[in-house]
Amino acid sequence: MSLRIGVDTGGTFTDLCAFDELTGQVHVRKVSSTPDDPGRAIIQGVQELLDQIGGRNIGEISYFAHGTTVGTNALLTGRGVRTGLITTKGFRDLLELGRGRRPHMYDLQADKPEPFVPRDLRVEVTERVRHDGRVETGLDPNEVRAVVRDLKAKGVESIAVCLLYSYVRPEHEREIGRIIAEEFPEAYVSLSSEVLPEFREFERLSTVVTNAYVGPVVAKYLARLRSNLADAGLKCLPHVTQSNGGIIPFPTAEELPVRLVLSGPSTGVVGAAAITAAAGSPDIITFDMGGTSSDVSLVQNGTPKVTSSMELDGRPIRSPMLDIHTVGAGGGSIAWIDSGNHLRVGPASAGAFPGPACYGNGQEATVTDANVVLQVLNPEYLLNGQLKIDAQASHRAIKAIADPLGLSVPEAAQGIIRVVTANMARAIRVISVQRGYDPRDYVLVPFGGAGPLHASRLATELGINRIIVPETPGAQSALGLLMTDIRSDFMRTKILQVTPESSSGFSQVFAELTDQASAWFAEENIGEDRRSLLRRVEMRYAGQNYELPVDVPDGALDEESISSLIEAFQRAHDRMYGYSARNEVVEAVTFRVQAIATVPRADLRRSNSEGRKPEGAIIGYRDVFLPEKADYVPCPVYDRSKLDVGHRVAGPAVVEQMDTTTLLLPSDVCVVDDLRNLVIEIRRSTSE
Predict the structure, then answer these.
(1) Helix 451-462 and helix 409-431, axial crossing angle in degrees, nearest 10
(2) What residues contact 506, with CB distance under 8 A and at least 6 apart?
(3) Exposure letters 369-402 (e unless 16+ CB within 10 A, then b)
(4) CB neighbours (10 Å) of residue 440?
(5) CA 153 to CA 160: how far, in whole Å?
(6) How far, in Å, CA of 306 to CA of 450, rounded?
(7) Residue 296, class by beta-carbon neighbours within 10 Å (0-12 exposed, 13-18 middle, 19+ buried)?
(8) What residues form DSSP beta bridges with 312?
(9) Paired sense of beta strands 548-552 and 586-597, if any
(10) How far, in Å, CA of 640 to CA of 631, rounded?
């Protein structure tokens, strides 16, 4: 058992990466995704990958990790289960009322998303806990039994429970959970005090309802995949990645599916951070461009930025997650003309089927078709011949866009690239400029099947001077699954005024969370030598409505360390908002502990030059349309597998490999480093 396999399911392709612990080799495979049953593509891809590396047996797999979009897709498409809600009397309509904000400030006709639980399935129980934990009105078990029976009669499959101030005193929710287990044992149950023991009742309610809505879908998918893998001969316990970049065993994930919302893209960020830190560039912006979307994230000092909340399709979700921003800009994003006769791209995507026109099934013009017309992409095949390309179909699709705009086909194709580049640049400014970081201080790290193809133009748009393309960018998220640890998060809201004398209050809360983490370690059979904890506290000025996270160092907390936390908060506030108010009272709000269990991971092995010349890697020439030249220009095409450490390639040029294509623009200079990354220097002062 010497194989470690990571599988990432995307909208168009399912990527697989295997690390052979005996030889140190990394093997990559891509297969078309099967949206109707993602597990089918996984089983197929695993078998093809094992055949590719010499007819290995699935029983040789010692570690299996999976990144999935099943939960996210169920949320976006409204394909969760029929869900009921039990809440405190008087709060039945909170799920629909929300915060009272319009989805779009200046659009008076914009509708809020339909709640996952309709009003007739939202029921109230008589109980009341005050903010300090004092019970004003006790829970009536008979009333609870009646509402549970009513929900069962109405055909719900899942029940969310969210009581006011349950994060302070969870006993009432636990009693409801016990009664549901007696009256309706087959129901999937989500308690807000377990899913999100934090304040802000609407966000907590929205999160626990989301967890209940997709819980059975995710649980059934993971259970079915686990069974199918076992039937195929897999002996190890499979793991799935969470939004926080860590992994957890399938059975654990089945209980908290809301933590899998960013399951797919998170490990790509983790893997990129590890690779570039080893390459001496710990400050990066990751750019993951797949078939349907682009995901961007900022990494500082080798550590990905984290956040505790996001909105998905207008619904707030609070859960520990990497700070990843997503836009509908992928290789399959469809180009279209709006009512003002302007060219637009996305967010609609051709997906895995029918896919871009050049794949042979679709007819609409996509970003991939534009790249085929420009001949940046191989106009005959991709994936080392696994995927045949119909260049004429791309030409016809782009022409349908070009003619109404009065453009030539190459001009329209380049226009599509310009628009999608601008969309991606806006996404990067959200996670950088809008949060106090200058993208020019960072290295751009593109991955995904289309990331390296667009990286140079995107870097120019943002003023970034260096790009690092990993060795297997098309399967970076799958490789990242082999470079991350098991993680679980524990949190609690307790509002404390922060002064040097408040160290005892801090210590008490962190001790309680540490005890929960220790219990989790024991439950997962994780040895002492593999355990570590990360502590964080969210702070604000008294009276503010939102907090900023501050890392808490290891060890005992005293007056000096609390003073350091206050100073760290002041610096964070100054960076985010441009000022700090050092005379204002500072409050601690939510305390967090992340439990980390290290696992064996794929090694980053350095290579030496074999002394060959880079010209030996040229496999031909191709006319590529370059707007800088306003024409098609003959460009050398390099086989990346034949490029050695130290090789220097000057643009314009194309570098092809099985899982992606990298475009070097005129004046770009690329050097292969000893980790076999392509390090590209951007040496031009004007942007296209």
Answers:
(1) 70
(2) 496, 537, 552, 557, 562, 588, 591
(3) bbbbbbbbbbbeebbeeebebbbebbbebbbbbb
(4) 11
(5) 16
(6) 25
(7) buried
(8) 315
(9) unpaired
(10) 26
Structural domains of the chain sorted by starting position, each given as residue range(s) with its CATH number in brackets: 3-74+219-260 (3.30.420.40), 75-218 (3.40.50), 263-315+420-480 (3.30.420.40), 487-597 (3.30.1490), 614-681 (no CATH)
3-state secondary structure of 592: strand
In one letter, which amino acid is 574?
D
Distance CA(130)–CA(285), nearest Å, equals: 44
Contact call for residues 688 and 462 (beta carbons, < 8 A): no
Question: Tokens at residue 70, please?
Answer: 């099943």
Strands lying side by side in the sheet with 247-249: 26-32, 13-20, 3-9, 61-67, 239-241, 247-249, 486-497, 586-597, 531-541, 548-552
Cα distance between residue 231 and residue 144, in whole Å: 42
pLDDT along the chain (688 residues), means of 10: 84 84 83 86 93 87 89 82 97 89 77 90 96 93 97 97 95 97 96 93 95 93 93 92 89 86 84 92 94 89 87 84 87 92 89 85 93 95 85 95 95 96 94 91 94 95 96 87 89 92 92 95 91 96 92 91 95 92 95 91 73 83 92 95 92 92 94 94 65
C-alpha closest to that of 379 among 114, 193, 624, 687: 624
Between CA 512 and CA 300 the distance in angstroms is: 30
Q: Strand pairing partners for 597?
A: 486, 531
Residues 31 and 44: their CA atoms lie apart, in Å, by 8
Q: CA 44, 64, 291, 381 torsion: positive or negative?
A: negative
> How far are the Cα atoms of 144, 264, 270, 433 from residue 321, in angstroms, in the given order?
34, 12, 12, 20
Phi, psi of 166 (to 5 degrees): -70, -20
Report the distance separating Cα 409 and Cα 396, nearest Å.
Answer: 9
Distance CA 147, CA 371 (A): 58
- Of the candidates 372, 86, 375, 51, which has an alpha carbon nearest to the alpha carbon of residue 205? 86
Tokens standing for residue 571: 């610096």
Half-sphere exposure of 545 (CA within 13 A, CB side): 2
